[in-house]
Design goal:
200 residues, alpha+beta, Arc Repressor Mutant, subunit A, Bactericidal permeability-increasing protein, domain 1, eight-stranded antiparallel beta sheet, two-stranded antiparallel ribbon
């Protein structure tokens, strides 16, 4: 909660209003929005007064939580509704996350999420099954195993040999790889993965 004490000192997180009962719990303090009369900030306006970086980080975390829980990426409208902001603000944030932070990969020419490493928002050859019955798509075997490791769950990754089409199932139990046989082949050197991550 917020309070401005006499003498112009910065507001604190306690709101001591004598003439009314106003709950300001959890409201951040944008400069210039608090005076001697107490809290004048609306919760619904909070996001618009935060820095772009703070908003981007919150949206990034929310996207990852959504993918972890539902196995699919949220739309810009989903994000806008959750954060009580306008869709163009979401578009701007997604573009910054993709261009400035390398946090997301967007479908070219759009703000639709394609990848949020290690998750894929579209079907791939790497289907990830959690022991808790959740399902995800990985961008590659590396990412498929990374999803299970990131979430700390056992499970499996199902795919096919890219040469002959033979089905392959990699099992994780008690945090470790079970009955690991096979050959791992990287067609692109790691240093070049992000030159064209869609191809990689």
């Amino acid at each position: 909660m917020l309070d401005r004490s006499p003498g112009g000192r910065p507001p604190t997180r306690r709101c001591r209003l004598r003439d009314r009962d106003l709950d300001c719990t959890g409201i951040q303090e944008p400069s210039g929005l608090v005076d001697n009369r107490g809290c004048r900030i609306l919760r619904s306006m909070t996001a618009s007064h935060r820095s772009d970086q703070d908003l981007d980080l919150d949206i990034r975390l929310w996207i990852y939580r959504h993918l972890a829980e539902h196995g699919s990426a949220p739309s810009a409208l989903d994000i806008a509704e959750s954060f009580s902001i306008e869709p163009p603000e979401v578009d701007d944030s997604l573009l910054r996350l993709a261009k400035e932070h390398d946090a997301l990969v967007l479908v070219p020419g759009t703000t639709s999420i394609w990848m949020a490493e290690p998750f894929s928002a579209v079907p791939t050859w790497f289907r990830v099954h959690g022991a808790d019955d959740r399902r995800w798509w990985g961008n590659c075997i590396w990412d498929g195993l990374g999803i299970l490791g990131l979430l700390g769950v056992d499970g499996s990754v199902e795919t096919r040999c890219p040469d002959c089409g033979w089905p392959i199932r990699v099992q994780i139990q008690n945090g470790g790889l079970q009955d690991a046989t096979g050959v791992v082949h990287f067609a692109v050197r790691a240093a070049r993965w992000w030159r064209d991550i869609g191809f990689t």
